[in-house]
Amino acid sequence: MLALTVIVLVFGGSSLYSYNRDLEVVRYVSATIKAVGWSSSELETELLKFDHALTALSAHTADKAYVQLRFELLWSRIDTLLQGQENRPLREQPGVMSLLDSFSRQLEDWEDRVYALRADDRAEILALRQELAPFRQQAREINVDSFSGDKVWQQLDIIQDVRLRSSLYLAGLLFSGGLMLWFLVRENRRNRHLAYHDMLTGLPNRMFFYQLIGQALNRARRERQSLAVHMVDLNSFKSINDSLGHEVGDSLLREIAVRLSDTIGTQGQVARLGGDEFVIIQRLEQAEDAGLMAKRLLESLSRDVQLPDGCLSPQACIGTSLYPEHGTTIPELLSHADTAMYYAKHSRKTMVQMFEPGMDERRLRRQKLAVSLQAAIEQDRLALHYQPIFRLNSGAIESVEALLRWHSAEHGVVSPLELIAVAESHGLAHRLNDWVLSQACRQLHSWHQAGFDWLKVNVNISPNIFMDGELAGTVSRVLHQSGLDASSLVLEITEDTSLWDTAGSLDILQELRELGIEIALDDFGTGYSSFSHLRQLPLNKLKIDKSFVADLATDPRAVSLVKTIISLAESLDMTVTAEGIELPEQQAQLQLLGCELGQGYLLARPMPVEDMDLLLQDRLLCSRSA
After folding, report:
1. How many domains does the chain have?
2. Which of 241, 390, 226 minimizes the C-alpha distance to 293?
3. Which of 336, 408, 574, 588 is close enough to 569 for a disulfide, judged by CB 3.0 to 4.6 Å?
4. Pair 271, 208: CB distance under 8 Å
5. Starting at the edge strand that comes first in sequence, how are the strands of the sheet with 316-323 ordered?
6. For residue 1, what are the β-bridge partners?
7. Are strands 412-414 and 456-461 parallel, antiparallel or unpaired?
8. Cis link prior to 324 (omega < 30° from 0)?
9. Which of 330, 356, 382 is the last residue of a domain?
10. What domain of life (predicted)?
């Protein structure tokens, strides 16, 4: 806007000086020749372009998107000619206003037909061209008249008369034209930059990145050098946007872009592919430099980001692939870097991962498992096994823990850990959780009806399900559908889960307790719970991790630790369950320490429903005979 203002002022000043007494003539010339001639030419040009677009669509040399574009530009030109003040002289020409009004109505009638047009609709295309022909002819006549009619010859006579006084005007016009050209060149460069760079970070965008990596690969081939591609992804970026706002998210992305650029320096280039995903091309002197750079990038990203209201500690994962070791084409390198990043994102050990042969097969297996798992959930082809939890002093069964099992016809026996990992990484965790809860509650309700109304069922809840805020609603719905009393359900939540957000965990646990269910803290001792933290949480039970139980018979420190845990639980009015009892000595030691409940292979292995039925019946008969 400022540039156009400068041009208008310079042009107006030079024109005013040379046309001080001929203002009406200049206005007439500019309004009639320039406005009428240019506008009529543009009208005819847009009509021809639309006609040519229809012809090209019929000849399969253009697609329907191009036809729609030409149609929209033509319609925009008609609207401009009808409304623009600068086009008033054209509208005053005989027959122009009626043509514009008529054609505007015709465009409204054509809109649905044009957008529904296909290349094989030759009859429709021909019909449109025939309907367009009269307007094109009228536009042509107006255009010819605007350049060679009687009024034009009169204007030329007037122009000839003032030509001698126009030298200063022409000088000003040339200067203004040069200035406009300069602005156009500058604007073109700006537009090119915007087309090839990300507006938020200023980094090369996806389109420009493919050019850059193509050039880098060509240079690496010629010079027989190595190349590294680092794929960077921020963890939990969506939650940052949702909780802190998009302004904070944008600030974080800009800071990440600066850090990546500063870290890679002159060794490569950084691009933003979209969202929170960045990619770095690194020129290598030796292959080892790629791993070192990936670690430097991670260290740079892991530093706190200062915000107006505090600081944020971003977490990222990086996957790396090498040219030519891991691929020689752009798709191969990007795919392998993305695969390595996927493993880094789902690894508990490292956030930096170099691509390794076989990763693609493992990732493909997980993708296939995800598809099969979805079908297994829908078709009810999963199974639950139940492991009894016994009262150690009497040997009576207090409850059963529901354990997920899957024997796939395609993949064989899939371990529960892999099954849960696949579900969580492919968006199936909620559906799987619903299935397990529903199956376990329905089965327990069936056992209650069979006379085992004292029995409880323990169901494990994954961290993702626990923290999404919908668990209480899900549990309430499942209990209602199954008809199970809430007091018979025990949800097992890992120790680390409840530590993610103490305040949030307290609210979630309180909602669950208000339903009447029991909460057990699973794998206790492997996380970082403090005594004050345990005191805040409304828990009913602690489950001692099997790693402590395994050492009871050989390590006095393990005995002391388990004794402390039991004492702590008693002080907080919690019941203790020992997991992983496999030796008689372990069971005896736990009984001496006052542990109330226990489970493990020594007592009973996980078993299908049929075997669990027999065990319950056997225990019931034994108790009656006693």
Report:
1. 3
2. 226
3. 574
4. yes
5. 268-274, 277-284, 226-234, 316-323, 352-354
6. none
7. unpaired
8. yes
9. 356
10. Bacteria
Q: Please give the helix or strand (H or E) that residue 459 lies within, else none.
A: strand 456-461
Residue 446 phi, psi (nearest 5): -65, -40
d(CA 337, CA 353): 9
Q: Which residues of the chain have pLDDT under 70?
A: 1-37, 84, 86, 89, 145-174, 176-177, 242-243, 309-310, 348-349, 360-363, 464, 467-469, 495-504, 525-533, 621-626
pLDDT of residue 151: 57
- Contact between 213 and 325 (Cβ < 8 Å): no
Same domain, yes or no: 597 and 571: yes
Write out the two tokens for 160: 């000839």
**Is-above-0.70 flag for pTM?**
no
Report the b/e string of 200-212 with b at 16+ CB within 10 A: ebebbbeebbeeb
- From CA 386, how far away is CA 60, in angstroms rounded? 65
Q: Looking at the structure, tell me whether residues 110 and 3 fall in a common domain.
A: yes
Are 128 and 211 contained in the same domain? Answer: no
Pairing of strands 597-598, 383-391: antiparallel
CA 441, CA 458: separation in Å to the nearest integer?
A: 10
User: Is 163 among the domain residues?
Assistant: no
110-127 per-position pLDDT tens digit: 888 888 888 888 888 888
In angstroms, the Cα distances linking 472 to 16, 430, 431 are 79, 13, 15
The pLDDT value recorded for residue 500 is 46
Helix (H) or strand (E) holding 598: strand 597-598
Structure confidence at residue 498 (pLDDT): 46
380 Ramachandran zone, left/alpha/beta (phi>0; psi -120 to 50):
left
Asked whether 263 and 296 are in contact (CB, 8 A), the reply is yes
Is 182 a domain residue?
no
Q: Which of 157, 184, 219 is the last residue of a domain?
A: 157
SS (H, E, C) 93-135: CCCHHHHHHHHHHHHHHHHHHHHCCCCCCHHHHHHHHHHHHHH
| pLDDT confidence of residue 597 | 95
- Rounded to whole angstroms, the Cα distance separating 332 from 324 reads 10
Determine the distance from the C-alpha atom of residue 196 to the mean position of all C-alpha atoms in its chain, rounded to a whole number: 22
Q: Which residues of 503-537 are buried (b: 16+ CB within 10 A; e: fewer)?
A: eebeebbebbbeeebbbbbbbbbebebeeebbeeb
Nearest by Cα to 293 from 268, 329, 313, 315: 268
Please indicate, yes or no, whether residues 473 and 611 belong to a single structural domain of this protein: yes
Amino acid letter for position 161: D
Residues 115, 68 contacting (CB under 8 angstroms): yes
Closest CA to 455 of 496, 423, 432, 488: 488
What contacts 612, CB < 8 A, 6 or more positions away?
386, 388, 400
CA atoms in the 13 A half-sphere facing the CB of 41: 9
What are the start-end ranges of the H helices in 500-600? 502-515, 531-536, 546-549, 556-571, 584-593
Q: Which helix (H) or strand (E) holds 408?
A: strand 397-408
Packed helices 167-196 and 2-18: angle between N→C axes, nearest 10 degrees: 170
Q: Residue 580 is part of a domain; what is its CATH number?
A: 3.20.20.450
The tokens describing 465, both together, are 């399900």
Q: Judge whether 195 lies within some domain.
A: no
Residue 595 DSSP SS3: coil
**Who's near 112: CB < 8 A, 6+ residues apart?**
none
For residue 254, give its domain range: 206-356
CATH of the domain at 231: 3.30.70.270
